Amino acid sequence: MKVSVMQVGPIGTNCYFLQDEESGLMAIIDPGDDWDRILHQVKKAEGEVKYILLTHGHYDHTTAVPDLVKALPGVQVYIHQADANGAGSQLFPLAAQVEDLNNYDEGDTLSLGSLTIEVLHTPGHSKGSVTLKVGDVLFTGDTLFCGSCGRTDLRGGSYEEIMESLKRLGELEGDFHVCPGHDRTSTLERERKYNPFLLEAMGKA
């Protein structure tokens, strides 16, 4: 498994490239903008993109999707149904922009060559926020950040729900690499020790 990251868009959203090294198959996670730069990275990796996977529907995570779909025939786009149609000015209504949009939800799995991508529904930042678990990596979107968590004051956000989602992530067995939607990467063990929001969610604040 190979994971690389590129900052895209005006606020530097983390767009991740997940690749199964055995098959060369790739997934693009949260292509928030700069579709041409993303395509250049795909070509450098010499992989075939099977999926575009979205941790939630905010525009800074989805803007490049329509152009990438045009450039990558046959690519499958996945988002949680609760975020697919947009809600408020911060959500990009992908259902109106992308034909054959796929939905995933809690407990669903996707195969990427030898890799299995597990979907955890982690609402709070938005109703349709998910975390993608692949091996020892968590793509947490705007749910869990290094030292912080996603904002909950936008439409569809809920502090109570994000606390439940953070508690769930904190209680996962073992350690994981945390790949958030913004800022730097971390580890779950580090966040369990130092992240005040995760500590609050786990009742240890």
> Could you estimate the helical fraction of the residues in percent?
10-25%
Could you report the average pLDDT, rounded to the nearest whole number?
93
**Number of beta strands:** 14
CATH topology: Metallo-beta-lactamase, Chain A
Radius of gyration over C-alpha positions, nearest whole angstrom: 16 Å
Structural class: alpha/beta
Q: pLDDT under 50 segments (min length 5)?
A: none
Order of the strands making up the biggest sheet: 1-2-3-4-5-6
Q: Give the distance, in angstroms, between the N- and C-terminal Cα atoms.
A: 35 Å
Following the backbone from N to C, one meets helices and strands in this order, namely EEEHEHHEHEEEEEEEHEEHH
**Number of helical segments with 4 or more residues:** 7
Shape: globular
* Overall structural domain count: 1
Strand residues, percent: 25-35%
Write the layout of secondary structure elements.
Blueprint: E1 2-8, E2 13-19, E3 25-29, H1 35-45, E4 48-53, H2 59-62, H3 65-71, E5 76-79, H4 81-84, E6 102-103, E7 109-112, E8 115-121, E9 130-134, E10 137-141, E11 144-145, E12 148-149, H5 159-170, E13 177-180, E14 186-187, H6 188-194, H7 196-201
